[in-house]
Design goal:
The complex is a heterodimer of chains A (241) and B (288). Chain A has 241 residues and is mainly β. Helix content of chain A is 7%, strand content 43%. Chain A has 2 helices and 23 strands. The radius of gyration of chain A is 27 Å and the shape is elongated. Chain A starts with a strand and ends with a strand. In chain B, helix 1 runs antiparallel to helix 2. Chain B is globular and about 80 Å long. Chain B starts with a strand and ends with a helix. Classes of the chains: A mainly beta (241), B alpha+beta (288). Strand 12 of chain A pairs parallel with strand 9 of chain B.
Amino acid sequence: MAKLILTFNKQVIKEYPFAKDSVTMGRQEDNTIVIDNLAVSGYHAKIDKVGGEYILTDLQSTNGTFVNEEKVVSHKLSHGDNIGIGKHVILFVATEKEKLEGEGKDRKLPLDKTMLLDTAKQRELLAKQKIVPSVAKIPEKIGVVSFIDDSGLGEIELTKKLTKIGKAETSEIKLSGFLMGATAATISRRPSGYAISFAGGMTKLKVNGSVVRDSVPLKDFDTIELGSYKFQFYQKEVKSA
Amino acid sequence: MLIKSSGMTDVGLQREGNEDSFSVQDAFGLYMVADGMGGHLAGEVASRVAVEIITKSFGKWSEIQAPPDEIFGFPDESLSWQGNYILGSIRLANRVIYEMASEYEQYNGMGTTIVSLLVASGLVVAANVGDSRMYLVRDNRIERMSKDHTIVAEHVEMGVMTEEEAARSPLRHILTRNLGSSENVDAEVFEIEPSSEDLFILCSDGLTDLATDEEILKIALKESDPQKMSRRLIDLALERGAHDNTTVVTVFLDHVEKKRGTSFGGKLGGVVADALTGVNRIKRRLGL
């Protein structure tokens, strides 16, 4: 089934499967895709499934309907087309079968072929509409360790992908102690989140009271002990620049 | 540290050519898988160029110990110098493929993914662009060390799609980043501390399209020879129809040293350690 992906500022807001033969877009509540924005007309545009084709029609909207940055009145949609309505962009995604037909029958394209999303056009369109494109991302978080002993080290942000903790001068978090390892432990930021690993030395690493010999994932407010040092881990949102 | 590794690729059952490239270099501790795209051999060229450029620039910068601010692009302060060499090498490979693709008609629209693993003393650097993956198998668990650059992966991260939905979505092959299609690209880079018995698996989507993380783990835990493991993973893709080229690189680490010594010198540290184990032994004997 073909689908429509509603985006705003390059953030995906919602996906709509093309379940009916006609889809309408606009500010009024009874549209299939309701876009609550003053730049959007009550009934702004519609897409009709005609045979195997999808036809986009502008419903005489005030601010117009765009396909890949060109103003259109009526347009036959192809896979990957960007429909611009006000400041929103709707990505049209055809099914594999429809895509093949759209590409022309003489060219045999393998199914499951990897393709690159053509965001260049989308970016240009967004630039023309004076919207600063922001990469679709959930709020970035950064790990912090907060010392709860009497070392007076306070809070330290984990700005490195791999934070070394120990006695060595090159450690990001420098701790002292006779038995402290040059690198006693490391905290790494991985695709799944933060994890702490024992790295060496005679000082035991404990997380929530249990000795760690290899590595464990870190959760917010886990308590970490290294010799006489005691600190808590948590994550906070980074203010985007 | 002891490294055992293996790399293997198979054209699969439906494609005519193999657009994947891989590289296994135990001397550098550098391992890569690249999955090219773009017809008429262009995909094959893109993936091979990526692997070659990264190998050369990483080798060169390591050899002359280039200062991080003299490599390609701005250094990333959150990374080690090795991490920056890898990041810079990937940026450079992207630029070269991009220039080739815009300069020559036959290379128009070519691109490639890349996933690379660097194993150094006390440091492992994982980097990727696109949907070729790296897994870490440690303590009988499997963990991704790469981040897919696909629309569906972004949806999963935003919480609007589950992993299962993503694996079935028709959008799963649409990349949001690759090497070659824009002037600049940034790789996802992760750094961790290596540990004995760590196993890294690098692979193209020919495998991950047909096997779940758990299925890959199951095979990884049964096999200890890297050659056999790569073979079994590729066989799994073949058994399931192998609609795409499939490439697997497996890297085993062993005897990774966790330094016992403290900063007042290894020797003295050793003496203290011996003394302490002695004390502990006496304590135990006395039942303390």
